[in-house]
Specification:
Elements: E1 4-5, E2 12-18, E3 27-33, E4 36-42, H1 55-58, H2 60-63, H3 66-72, E5 78-79, E6 88-89, H4 92-110, E7 115-119, H5 125-139, E8 144-146, H6 153-162, E9 180-184, H7 188-191, H8 193-205, E10 210-214, H9 220-223, E11 227-229, H10 236-249, H11 255-261, E12 262-263, H12 265-272, H13 277-284, H14 288-300, E13 304-308, H15 310-313, H16 318-332, E14 341-344, H17 351-356, E15 363-364, E16 368-369, H18 373-383, H19 396-405, E17 410-414, H20 418-421, H21 425-434, E18 437-442, E19 455-458, E20 467-470, E21 475-479, H22 492-506, H23 527-537, H24 550-556, E22 559-560, E23 587-588, E24 607-612, E25 639-641, H25 643-648, E26 656-660, E27 665-672, E28 680-684, E29 692-693, E30 725-731, E31 736-745, H26 746-756, E32 765-771, E33 780-789, H27 795-804, E34 813-817, E35 822-830, E36 835-844, H28 849-857, E37 886-888, E38 893-894, H29 895-902, H30 909-920, H31 930-939
Parallel strand pairs: 7-8, 7-17, 9-10, 9-13, 10-11, 12-23, 13-14, 17-18, 18-19, 24-28, 25-27
Antiparallel strand pairs: 1-2, 2-3, 3-4, 5-6, 5-19, 15-16, 20-21, 21-22, 24-30, 25-28, 26-27, 26-30, 29-32, 31-33, 31-36, 32-33, 34-35, 35-36, 37-38
Pfam families: Fer2_BFD, Molybdop_Fe4S4, Molybdopterin, Molydop_binding
Family: Belongs to the prokaryotic molybdopterin-containing oxidoreductase family. NasA/NapA/NarB subfamily.
Keywords: 4Fe-4S, Iron, Iron-sulfur, Metal-binding, Molybdenum, Nitrate assimilation, Oxidoreductase
Length: 945
């Protein structure tokens, strides 16, 4: 396997790299022409995906388009003289000298505990390693954490509590060997689409396989299940104890395995004796028979493989949830064999690599523990520093709470957007405002956090970076640069190393160098030189990779750890011999009690709020949010409610509601969803201030979904409770509405969306999203701005919106009635077919959206609509039929078209799917829409003759 595929055409090359989204770790082939990324496809030789990519991965090249880069990228270092000022460009030397001076001054005045560094699971392993050494080795604080704390820290703590170390024991190949798949707290169909393709393949090859899904929400993954357990939020521990109770009663445990390879079982046996099927069914809200069936399949229809993600991790009981699920595998001996094991699915592309180098507040390199004095001494010797501080560092939530109190004076934020992603946004933003120094090291200038930065440092991103990442199955892959870094952007490891060398001059007492006799702790001249030092730190450890090298990764492709020196390849499965990395070689059962959620509902907050992923979006959408086509499946922010609750609250689809928690509020439309149980609700995690905003009655800015979420965290893993918050939901009366929609060039669309953000605060509710399809025949992208308020907006705000949406010229049709608060503006263009609507603004009465918006989005001829376009309340002279919600992003296939075609498809579900794919092509490219296609097939059975 070579770095570069043979040239396809003159001036074109293809580079192997890795997708920057989820922890699946898909290989990609990046095609470049004249130094620009022009196309991407899945790498058929990569063992994680074998050529497949999801909707997000298959559109990566579009996020690297020149127009996107020019509008969204941070390309030069910038500095603000004062908070609120516009940042001004400066040189790298000036920026890093300034940063080093201010950090050193704060450390001298307040000590090293007064600074905090916050990184990302999207950093490469090399970036992580240098950052860890910089903070813990040179600065002398353990105040280093990353957004992996929000993602995988409970999985880490759960593995360590039971198996001894943080090491997922299974691999992707186990999907095809399993007889039972137990997916809990994960919507694999959306969060890890390519892994779900492998699950689909395995089920097709083995019809006897059973799929159990436990989730409060009936997700697309749950729709595919043979057994769905819609447990109440936070009741996972009770579920697992109840399943073990049944397994014990019915002889489904492996007592020989327990006796030979584990300890602590008797305490657990005594604990679960009280978790009878009847009591657990009542706690979890599921039928008793379903609990018993799940236990039978888990313990009797083996081998059994468990897959889990944020539903277990993002909880105040996250570690216990992980550990009690692992109990089931240890009790049945379902670990260390093909098709069996507890397999945590990593949320971010390199959260695993960050764990390997110890890039979190409680970890050290190569799975060493910060609390172990021997481990600290080993790392200090390796790095050449006097010591590694013993005082525990502040974790993600703790770090920003400390900054909000004024205890942490400086925050260095790299490759993440805490002003969108952390819970309790009021506290997070107070921290960013209170800190003396905020440095943001970032590729994108458009994130909410950038607005708080005193210094902005441009970093490289996908397609430009060089190094390694590790995926969910412990497989290390190379990330290679296909194009040079744009502007003055630099690699993250290089920025950290350069800062370190400057801080050495200002903090000489921390730079010993006695181990290596070097002039600097940061001698790196390439990512490989960093990786080689990291490799040495793993020698003799559970993740030993001393037998691996960049050369092997280049020539033989991605490899799994451990791979010690002398071994030709890594190990696919761990603990096959039943020996665990604990002092006595035995795994440990975790006998922990069941406790209810941290924030129970009450009369003022009677609903449970869940958050999670959309199929086509990623995190805060700084990358995916640049593409209109990725908003086709879910086009605007909303809260999903059960139809029973919608009716009880007197709500119709699209009605605005105010959602209030004990920390903040947000206003957004409500949508009915059978996937959500009564008295529960769901908002996608991606909707931050960049897309959803407004001001409350007290004039406070509403900052998206994480204005609502809970900062309480698991005491063992410190991972916050992002999956459950108690909220109140009420209809909100905002009679004046506004809708602006326009086609425009891609570069203008991005600029307009940035310019609209300050205007969102003029309304009680506002959202702004792109839409469209790529490639559009005219190279256009859509922008949709929606708002609501108690009173009409000022003429000045309307003029600004008209100007931004290009409905302000002399050729624009307009109607304005200030007294009635009605305003309309329409811009049409001539085409060969006739007049077509190019942009419009409706204010006051927006009921015409039902037919005006399809006119624009479907680019229909508008000649016949004349005066109706400007008349509030007018009916369209010719009926307009919207194409409906998009299901297949790749081929822009909508739900009505699929339902209509299904009426002509006969046979089994698989046969109807094949016919549907043959006629419409949906589900034939990336496959991300296949779970939804199967759901529609189930909902629309073949009509009886």
């Amino acid at each position: 396997m070579s770095t570069t595929i043979p040239i396809v055409t003159a001036g074109t090359k293809t580079t192997r790299a890795t997708c920057p989204y989820c922890g699946t770790g898909c290989g990609v082939l990046i095609e470049t022409t004249a130094g620009r990324i022009t196309h991407v496809q899945g790498d058929p030789d990569h063992p994680a995906n074998f050529g497949r990519l999801c909707t997000k991965g298959s559109t990566l090249h579009l996020t690297a388009a020149t127009s996107v880069q020019e509008q969204t990228r941070l390309l030069t270092p910038q500095r603000r003289r004062a908070r609120g000022d516009t940042p001004a460009p400066i040189g790298w030397d000036e920026a890093l000298d300034d940063a080093a001076d201010q950090l050193a001054d704060i450390i001298r005045r307040h000590g090293p505990q007064a600074v905090g560094f916050y990184g990302s699971g999207q950093l490469l392993t090399e970036d992580y390693y240098v950052l860890n050494k910089l903070v813990k080795g040179l600065v002398g604080t353990n105040n280093l954490d990353t957004n992996s704390r929000l993602c995988m820290s409970s999985a880490v703590a759960g593995y360590k509590a039971t198996l001894g170390v943080d090491a997922p024991p299974a691999c992707y190949d186990d999907f095809k060997h399993a007889q039972t798949l137990f997916i809990v707290g994960a919507n694999t169909a959306y969060a890890h689409p390519i892994l779900f393709r492998r699950i689909e393949d395995a089920r097709q090859a083995n019809p006897a396989m059973k799929l159990i899904v436990a989730d409060p929400r009936k997700t697309e993954t749950a729709e595919m299940a043979d057994l769905f357990l819609p447990i109440r939020p936070g009741t996972d521990v009770a579920l697992f104890h109840g399943m073990l109770h049944v397994m014990l009663a019915e002889g489904l445990v492996d007592m020989d395995y327990i006796a030979q390879h584990t300890q602590g079982f008797e305490a657990l046996r005594g604990l679960v004796a009280d978790f009878t099927p009847a009591s657990v069914a009542a706690i979890c809200g599921i039928p008793q028979a379903d609990l018993v069936q799940a236990a039978h399949w888990f313990g009797g229809h083996t081998p059994t493989l468990s897959l889990y993600c944020q539903g277990l991790n993002q909880s105040t009981r996250g570690t216990d949830k992980n550990a009690t699920l692992i109990n089931l595998h240890l009790a049945t001996g379902q670990i260390g064999k093909p098709g069996a094991g507890p397999f945590s699915l990593t949320g971010q592309p390199n959260a695993m690599g960050g764990r390997e180098v110890g890039g979190m507040a409680n970890l050290l390199s190569a799975h060493r523990d910060l609390g172990n004095a021997e481990h600290r001494a080993e790392v200090a010797k390796l790095w050449g520093v006097p010591d590694v501080p013993a005082q525990p560092g502040k974790t993600a939530v703790e770090m920003f709470e400390a900054a909000a109190r004024g205890e942490i004076k400086a925050l260095w934020i790299a490759c993440t957007n805490p002003a969108q992603s952390l819970p309790d946004q009021a506290t997070v933003r107070k921290a960013l405002e209170t800190a003396e120094l905020v440095v943001v090291q970032e590729a994108f200038a458009t994130t909410a956090t950038c607005a708080y930065a005193d210094l902005l440092l441009p970093a490289t991103t996908w397609g430009e970076k060089d190094g390694t990442v590790t995926n969910s199955e412990r497989r290390i892959s190379r990330v290679r640069s296909a194009i040079p870094a744009p502007g003055q952007a630099r690699h993250d490891w290089s920025i950290f190393a350069d800062l370190g060398r400057r801080l050495e001059q200002r903090l000489p007492e921390r730079q010993a160098g006695w181990r290596h006799g070097m002039d600097t702790l940061f001698p790196y001249d390439s990512p490989e030189s960093v990786w080689n030092e990291h490799r040495e730190s793993t020698r003799g450890r559970d993740l030993d990779i001393t037998g691996l090298s960049y050369e092997i990764l280049e020539t033989q492709g991605p490899q799994q750890w451990p791979m010690p020196q002398g071994h030709a390849q890594g190990r696919a499965r761990l603990y096959e011999d039943g020996v665990f990395p604990t002092p006595d070689g035995r795994a440990r059962f975790s006998a922990v009690p069941y406790e209810a959620v941290a924030e129970p509902c009450d009369e003022h907050h009677p609903f449970a709020l869940n958050t999670g992923r959309l199929r086509d979006q990623w995190h805060g959408m700084s990358r995916t949010g640049t593409l209109g086509r990725l908003f086709g499946h879910v086009s605007e922010p909303s809260i999903d409610l059960n139809p029973v609750d919608m009716k009880r609250l007197g709500l119709g689809a699209g009605d605005l509601v105010r959602v209030t928690s004990r920390r903040g509020a947000v206003v957004l439309p409500a949508q009915p969803s059978d996937a959500v149980s009564p008295m529960q609700s769901f908002i996608a995690m991606h909707w931050g201030e960049e897309y959803l905003s407004g001001r409350d009655a007290q004039g406070r800015l509403m900052t998206g979904v994480n204005a609502l979420t809970v900062p309480a965290f698991c005491p063992k893993s410190k991972q916050p409770e992002l999956k459950n918050a108690a909220v109140g939901i009420e209809a909100v009366q905002l009679p004046w509405r506004l809708l602006g929609v326009a086609w425009m060039s891609e570069d203008r669309a991005l600029a307009v969306r940035e310019a609209v953000k300050p205007l969102m605060g003029h309304f009680s509710f506002a959202s702004c999203v792109p839409f469209g399809r790529e490639p559009h025949e005219r190279g256009m992208v859509g922008v949709l701005f929606r708002a609501a308020a108690p009173e009409p907006a000022s003429d000045a705000v309307l003029r600004q919106l008209e100007e931004l949406l290009s409905v302000d010229g002399p050729d624009v049709l307009r109607y304005h009635d200030r007294h009635q608060g009605q305003h309309r503006a329409m811009r049409l263009r001539r085409s060969d077919e006739g007049l077509k609507l190019e942009a419009f603004l409706l204010a006051g009465d927006v009921s015409a959206e039902a037919w005006v918006r399809p006119l624009l989005q479907e680019e229909l001829v508008a000649d016949a609509y004349g005066r109706a376009l400007l008349s509030p309340g007018a009916k369209p002279p010719v009926a307009v039929q919207s194409k409906g919600r998009q299901v297949c992003t790749c081929f822009n296939v909508t739900e009505p078209a699929i339902v209509e075609t299904l009426g002509t498809c006969a046979g089994s579900a698989d046969e109807r799917l094949a016919q549907l794919q043959g006629q419409l092509k949906c589900g034939t490219n990336c496959g991300s829409c296949v779970p939804e296609l199967r759901k529609l097939i189930k909902l629309h059975p073949v009509a009886m003759a």
